[in-house]
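Schema walkthrough. Field components (list of strings):
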Amino acid sequence: MKRSVPFEIFRYTAILAAIAVILVPILWTVSMAFKPIGEWSATGTDLTWWPKDPTLSNFRLVFGESTNNLIVALDRTALKPILSSLLSASFGTAIAMSAGTAAAYGLSRFGSGQNLPLALIQLRLFPPMAVMTPVMIMWAFLNFTDSWWGLSLIYGIVTLPFAFWLMKTFFDDMPREIEEAALVEGCSRLRVFTRITLPMMRAPLASAALFVFILNWSDYLIALLLTTREWVTVPVYMASLSSSMTGQLYGAKAALGLIAAVPPVIMGIAIQRHLVRGLTFGALKQ
Amino acid sequence: MSAVTATIPEDVMKTVQAKPTLREEGVKLGFRLTLPAQILVLFIAVFPLLMQLYISLTDWSPLSGLGWWSAWSLWNNFANYTDLAADARFWSALKRTATVMIVCVPAEFLLGLALATLFADEFPGKRIFYSILLMPMMVVPAVAGYMFFMLFQSGGPVNDILSALSGFPVTIAWLSDPTLALVAVMLADIWQWTPLMFLILLAGLVGVPGDQIKAATLLGANPWQRFVTIVLPKMKTIIIIALAIRVIENFKIFDTLYIMTGGGPGVATETISVYIYKLTTQDLIWGYVAAIALAILIVLSIAAVFAMKRMARAREVPA
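Field assembly_structure (string):
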């Protein structure tokens, strides 16, 4: 189709405007992360879009290294929260992916667990806040509160719907001829699943796992409710970064925000082909 | 002759035996494979729900000194439910949640649809623009909340941009003004979730068969007519799904909002999730929290059943 010049001009203007709006918050955070303390809360005429005096001191501060121009040293560093986020998000992903993949295969091939799709969508329907009270009671009873394994378990359950639906659409799309050939050769059903189907599904499995990991990594509310001190995650720790002496630690928060934001953005761009399927519960095959 | 008759029945026997065992094996394996997921769902759905129902009938709180299992001694004759009906703060939080939804979801939809239309065909730079446009939805919501918290400071960049545009020094205290705080929160939500609408709608737009559009063009339809009569009807299902997802997620709005305003100033940005959060962690009246939670769950479940029926009907109609 031939395109008109005015339309192309309109297209690029509109897209560039949207991109400008999208980039302002991100660029401001990046610039904040590299500003020395004196420029953090600069207002009015002092407000600078780019750090006049770029520094890494914010990053050093969150990792516990007190620098000359920062009076406060935090009572703990970001290392433990980063470890906590990594552990709980990874193990949560492992739980969701193993239970979800197995169930998806069971339903896709043998029709078992017909009730699961709806149950799992309903799991996503409710505001997490509305179901967290009993979870808090249960976790306290099981001694899971403020631990990475407790977080992993709840993350695994909360993201199970996404793992299940993504894998189910992938299994539904996979041609069955190869599996049938292996069955004819005398392989058992389980062997077909573990030796043939799973290895063939390596790429979809990886993108589903990344997807679930992003969701776990992004959580704030659940970690806020289920961790108190030892195993707070990065978002919870970031929100707590302010002190009576300095007020909001803008630069430190921005630095930590950047650290928290970078992995999902990179992973998300890597798996953007599968994002639609994941987010729509496979209701829509791209 | 005898060799042939000897082998054929054996082969037949084998297949006859093999088929049921293979199917049985499949049924057994299918059951075993879905078992972990079933257990996890039961663990998080059934037991907590019963516990919530039980606690919601009492005055139990973690400060009451009783284990939750002996909460029955604090039975209060459905007082939590009657309180809920008269709880003005609850109803205004619900209204606020609805307001945010009514503003944000259509805004995200229209912006997303407009962007998706611009991306429907190939043009130079498409891939890189596309990747940048998707970035907000991958930013951790808590971090996005903090980004917008910084942007809307009275000496922050938003006011700076407004000053530059208007020529006057603008120093609006966005987050401490009851109306503007809600506006700021909604802008953050639109920033973060328009890309999701864009992504889903673009996937739908690409799926619209090109030959029908071509045929309509030959018949003299202008772009607007083509869009309204062919593209939109074809995208019906996808539009419903996109809207449903955002309505559900927007109803739960918490992370971004709570970090930006903490529900304040006063209760000006207190949505349902924030209200329940405060009751849970500050007021600690868990019996009442359970009652609110159950009420919401019941209403949402009914809404969901209705919505799903309608969606199923929409899909039956050949688009």
